[in-house]
């Protein structure tokens, strides 16, 4: 799989938050699925009106080279089309990859080390000029420019010559590993097999950029649109954005985006409580508003649940994401598998789920892979302790390990109030492990310090709270960064906390990457997850559930399992 740079690994850890700022998920609000709601009396969505997006974080990066978003993001995918895109459907159907600018999801050859794409007919930019394969090649190449860093790092690791290429501003020749034999054909030559290439081809690095209109670091202010909307305003690094229709976008070439509203206004820099209050009240323009980055918290959800009208406007989403306990098996006492297994048996997932906001906001996990078919989810529990833990079994294992009188350990957590790595979760674990004779000292770290230490081989705590989210719905970008020994980084941001470097695991990752049948690959990812899980290198705790309000006049809510939030490209407001 990928061999990420230090900076890229840090970005990968943050990908989940970026994805949710610009992403889509599982099942929509009651009565607001794709077929049941709309903008007219007959229930059919209608074109027209203005959609308002109320967000906490501004869309700071809007250059297609610098975006790190799953499936092309949410707001970005209204402006940038890519070779492939996510299927804009509810639930599991939304985890599929489908053609966008290309006629299909790509033709592999040479054990998936070569991928060929053909472009559709009639593709145009907002100014009416045709989109060509050379524009896509240039768009990919400019993502290598140091001035435009921040995007997903895979191509630097995958493309032949990508590890040393500095982008078209410094190297005019471009990458030989991207070929454009004609205006409608583009071929990518990879160092190694990557069966998931069509999934990554949904990222904005594959958006076409006309070389003659590239303004470098200022391109994000007025990018040339290939999607249904064009940018007419982008101020304060994405804090305020206005999108209007691209007159040269053709629905005939784009079956995924519906583009119902005439205008989309993005307003960021708002507090989460303010966003939810405005969506709840639905006054004026807020009646036709959504958020792409703010969830309902436990207290807010409790209030909303008591109001039937509000409850009907809550969308539920699932994103491929796992919260877990990470061990350092290189240090005592966690170098003993029996101790790690004892901790796994002692965990009370019911109390952990309650600490994360309750069963409406978290689902207990016993597998590292998320509980979705597309990832290869295979139900298993290597240390079955029931919903409330098995203190007796944990004590038995501790005695076998030489700790008949119990054990003293330290659990490191973040002080950030995020209901994931925060004090609430740590305290719930402390109480559960105490029942098994494991005395836990809690060590809280400020968020930046926490990130630095938990991702450092030299400073890594012996036991800490961690989480991981996938860049696309497949087992590869989920298991490889955490368990591929070739991705251990000793002098930078390391995510393989267990330092697992098993040749059999590494080889199986390589073999699965040759498989281009996603369902077949998923089964093998599931089997690998189970094999690794038996080693108790992590203790999966829970998978989050996202709950978000939409305005009372918002129709046609579609939430796929790819990204977990409402897909703006499907929304109607009139």
Shape: globular
- Return Rg in Å: 24 Å
Fraction in helix = 10-25%
- Largest sheet report: 5 strands, mixed
Tell me the β content: 15-25%
Q: Strands of the largest sheet, in order across it?
A: 8-9-10-1-11
> What are the segments in which pLDDT stays under 50 over at least 5 consecutive residues?
1-42
Q: What class would the helix/strand composition place it in?
A: alpha+beta
Distance between the amino and carboxyl termini: 45 Å
Mean pLDDT: 91
Number of helices: 15
Strand elements, count: 19
Walkthrough of the structure:
The protein has 15 helices and 19 strands. The chain has helices at 6-21, 133-142, 154-158, 197-200, 272-281, 298-305, 308-311, 337-346, 349-355, 391-400, 423-434, 447-454, 476-483, 503-512, 518-533, and strands at residues 50-54, 84-86, 97-99, 107-109, 114-118, 178-182, 185-189, 229-235, 240-245, 263-267, 289-290, 314-317, 321-327, 362-364, 407-414, 438-445, 463-469, 538-544, 546-549. The strands form six sheets. The chain has a five-stranded mixed beta sheet with strand order 8-9-10-1-11, with no helix packed on it. Strands 4-5-7-6 form a four-stranded antiparallel beta sheet, covered by helices on one side. Strand 15 (407-414), helix 11 (423-434) and strand 16 form a beta-alpha-beta unit. The longest helix is centred in the first third of the chain and has 16 residues, at 6-21.
């Amino acid at each position: 799989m990928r061999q990420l740079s230090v900076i890229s690994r840090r970005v990968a850890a943050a990908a989940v938050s970026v994805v949710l700022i610009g992403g889509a998920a599982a099942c929509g609000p009651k009565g607001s699925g794709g077929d049941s709601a709309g903008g007219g009396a007959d229930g059919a969505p209608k074109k027209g009106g203005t959609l308002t997006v109320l967000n906490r974080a501004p869309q700071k990066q809007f250059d297609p080279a610098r975006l790190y978003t799953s499936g092309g993001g949410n707001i970005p995918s209204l402006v940038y089309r890519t070779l492939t895109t996510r299927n804009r459907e509810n639930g599991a159907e939304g985890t599929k990859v489908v053609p966008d600018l290309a006629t299909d999801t790509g033709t592999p050859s040479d054990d998936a080390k070569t991928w060929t794409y053909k472009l559709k007919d009639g593709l145009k930019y907002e100014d009416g000029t045709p989109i060509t394969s050379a524009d896509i090649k240039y768009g990919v190449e400019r993502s290598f420019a140091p001035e435009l860093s921040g995007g997903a790092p895979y191509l630097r690791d995958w493309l032949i010559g990508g590890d040393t290429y500095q982008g078209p501003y410094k190297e005019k020749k471009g990458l030989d590993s991207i070929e454009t034999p004609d205006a409608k054909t583009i071929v990518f030559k990879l160092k190694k097999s990557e069966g998931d290439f069509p999934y990554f081809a949904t990222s904005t690095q594959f958006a076409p950029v006309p070389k003659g209109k590239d303004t470098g670091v200022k391109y994000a202010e007025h990018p040339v649109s290939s999607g249904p909307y064009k940018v007419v305003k982008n101020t304060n690094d994405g804090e305020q954005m206005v999108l209007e229709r691209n007159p040269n976008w053709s629905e005939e070439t784009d079956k995924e985006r519906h583009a119902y509203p005439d205008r989309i206004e993005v307003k960021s820099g708002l507090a989460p409580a303010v966003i939810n209050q405005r969506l709840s009240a639905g006054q004026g323009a807020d009646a036709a508003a959504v958020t792409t980055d703010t969830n309902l918290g436990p207290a807010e959800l409790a209030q909303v649940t008591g109001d039937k009208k509000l409850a009907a406007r809550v969308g539920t989403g699932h994103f491929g994401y796992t919260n877990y306990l990470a061990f350092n098996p290189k240090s005592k006492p966690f170098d003993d598998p029996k101790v790690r297994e004892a901790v796994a048996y002692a965990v009370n997932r019911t109390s952990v789920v309650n600490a994360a906001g309750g069963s409406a906001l978290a689902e207990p996990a016993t597998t590292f892979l998320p509980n979705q078919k597309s990832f290869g989810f295979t139900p298993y529990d290597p240390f079955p302790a029931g919903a409330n833990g098995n203190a007796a079994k944990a004590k038995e294992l501790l005695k076998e390990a030489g700790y008949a009188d119990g054990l003293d350990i330290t659990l490191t957590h973040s002080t950030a109030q995020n209901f994931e790595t925060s004090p609430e979760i740590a305290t719930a674990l402390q109480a559960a492990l105490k029942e098994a004779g494991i005395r836990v000292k809690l060590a809280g770290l400020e968020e930046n310090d926490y990130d630095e230490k938990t991702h450092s081989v030299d400073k890594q705590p012996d036991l800490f709270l961690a989480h991981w989210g996938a860049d696309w719905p497949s087992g590869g970008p989920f298991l490889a960064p955490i368990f591929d020994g070739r991705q251990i980084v000793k002098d930078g941001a390391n995510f393989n906390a267990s330092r697992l470097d098993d040749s059999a695991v590494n080889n199986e990752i390589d073999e699965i990457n040759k498989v281009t049948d996603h369902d077949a690959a998923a089964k093998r990812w599931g089997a690998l997850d189970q094999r690794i899980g038996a080693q108790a290198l992590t203790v999966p705790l829970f998978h989050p559930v996202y709950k978000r309000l939409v305005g009372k006049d918002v129709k046609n809510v579609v939430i796929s399992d790819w990204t977990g939030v409402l897909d703006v490209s499907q929304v109607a407001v009139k």
